[in-house]
Amino acid sequence: MGRVCAITGEESFVQRLREMGLGEAALVRKVSGTTTILCQVNGTRIALNHDAARGIMVEQLPGNAH
To answer: Is the entire prediction scored with pTM above 0.90?
Structure first.
């Protein structure tokens, strides 16, 4: 489990992520993937390609090492 610290990329894409609940301070969990990343935020699973996921900085929360 981690917390989104920052999001970079095209403003329209960043805004769309925020609208889906994947904004700064959101709690997120990586479910699976390396090329396509499947993550869960607020009970919803979101698939992101590798390039999109690279623009999302996540801080790992203590006690959730994987």
So the answer is: no
